[in-house]
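Late entry, written up from scratch paper. The run itself happened at the end of the previous shift, but nothing got recorded in the book at the time, so transcribing now.
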Amino acid sequence: MNRIEQLSQWLEDERCGALITSEVSRRYLSEYASTDGILLITKEESYFLIDARYFDHAKQQAKNCTVILLTDTGKQLLELLIKHGIKRLHIESDTLTVRELEHYREILHYSELDSGNELSDKLREMRIIKSAEEIALITKAQRIAEKAFERLLGTIRAGMTEKQVSALLEYYIMDSGADGISFDTIAASGINSSVPHAVPTDKELKEGEFLTLDFGALYDGYHSDMTRTLAVGSVSEQMEEVYNAVYSANIDAMQAVRAGVGCKVADSVARSTLNAWNGLDKYFNHGLGHGVGLEIHEEPRLSQSSGTMLRTGMVVTIEPGAYISGKYGVRIEDMVVVTENGCDNLANVTKNLIHI
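Output as recorded:
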């Protein structure tokens, strides 16, 4: 059963439909990428309404739906709702704005718009488990990022700025075959590495500092995500100890990940390991990880507030860190695929401390 059929089967009866308006959900269901358009899912048939910019392309590539040239949103959608007798229309409550909701209510007066969370929850439930094809695309994105990282290691040196390092890594990612970058690359050195989501600055890399690189590639709509912390020259024994603690937390958490284990439990394992290293868990100020796919941050969330259980086919990050304010920080991040008996690490890059 394809994705549109799965969603169609979920609808309560023939009088119910689903209005798909977000870019990522349209892409996931139809397997066609566009910055605009509307998917209408019914029990009988599904439609992709899209304007002239994409129409010819969508007719060739959009799957499992009838592609219609969009000329008048209200008129065309209303005709389809009446044709199929749709009296209740589910919407994506977590992506539609209040203004957009009121607009659709005004033009689609034939149907009651259900602004509850049911459709958004269903789409999250579908997307949280990755197919073999999705895992292959995420893995391809990861290999591209790794190729760029290995190339960067032969280039960066003390004296370069964080902005230069970030720009160079992003160029290498694109030059290695990516469609784009997963997110704005983080290159944070010295005191800046103590900020988990630091923005690259004009600060120069200096001997004896850490350099944290958080980066990813985008390939055919799917993201990769990886972090490595490097040493610029030699670093102090205390810094190496913090690095080894985070390394151990990464390994221990990864060994805890398997189907049936709670996301909160995996997070707790990493914190317990850091605590055993002289109480470094107090410097770990974010969740252990998150899902990755068509978006860089997806469900599930591996954190103390999560009630989700890990399931086979989930792709999640394992990214413990320790951020000592005013000094330095360390983060090591891998993507893994959850399996019945453990997990498969998608990263092929060493986690041993690399000196540049």
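The chain has a mean pLDDT of 97.
(Scratch paper discarded after transcription.)
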